Amino acid sequence: MVDGTHRETEIVLEALYLWSCADDDFVMDEEQQLKMMNALMTDLKSMAATQLGEPEKSILKCLAAAASLSFNFYAASCPFVELMVANTVRSASSSDPTIPGKLLRLVFHDCFVEGCDASVLLKGNGTEQSDLANKSLGGFAVIDSAKRLLELICPGTVSCADILALAARDAVAITGGPMIQIPAGRRDGRASAAANVRPNIVDTSFTMDEMIKIFSSKGLSLDDLVTLSGAHTIGAAHCSAFSGRFQKDSHGKLKLIDPSLDTSYANELMRMCPAGASASITVNNDPETSSAFDNQYYRNLLARKGLFQSDSILLDDERTRKQVEGFANDEGRFFESWSRSFLKLTSIGVKTGEEGEIRRSCSEING
After folding, report:
1. Where is this chain's protein located in or outside the cell (predicted)?
2. 109 part of the active site
């Protein structure tokens, strides 16, 4: 980034901070949001486009779309939408503790492909769901349940994209993470293609540079990468997601080939996922506090107990090690950063205004 963009970047971060840290004592109404975003965009537009690198352009594109969202979007049309979604998530999670992790993963896979437009929820041949990387996604029934309820109370009003973003937000809160405000007004996309999945999502075997490239293309920074990786503090993964860290020996048994993994933890993983293990077996992302959204994930990284190669890299790479250590030692700092980064995540490529539609059913487009 050239020096001339420093002030603009500071404004972006300040705007995101104000949005994400809003609480009962500080809630921006629509007029305040509009004034803030107008000032932001005016300042940014004063820059010559040639002075901005691709990451900054991605951020501006993301913010321009997010500026059309509103914290009070459903205040008149469906005032109880957040309560209904939260109750649906809470009810589903009480009977199935894996739901929060599934919802959080689902919003990542939605927003990174085609933006946060619920394209991942569409069923059918050749849709995003049909890609192998999405075969293990879950939580769809929770979104469908909330949508059915809202269609009874506020028909044709609340988008599936908003429901998914709110549900993921609530999934974090009910497992002990920060409860943050996110704006609404996303509309549902009408396209979903399996071919768009792999080029846009992070694989657990990616190098740091590969992850940075994906995140940067979404308008997300290196800080966002480390912060949003903290989603792995809840949820579970199939054995195949980390099998590359092991190799079969001459006797057909697994052996550790990744020196960045703690030996005792590796032995436990091999016990749970032996050679030839069933494809249905899952392992908790966080071996210590798997049902709590906390900073244990980063403590695990310091102990070399990151489940994925993409986790361990965060500690091994000098560009991210300090942030990992900071989050491991200060949960409040992680939660504050999570609030900002999650807001950015759920603002990626949103469709607003006349774009897209409000689906009647989350699994299919309207007519």
Report:
1. Secreted
2. yes
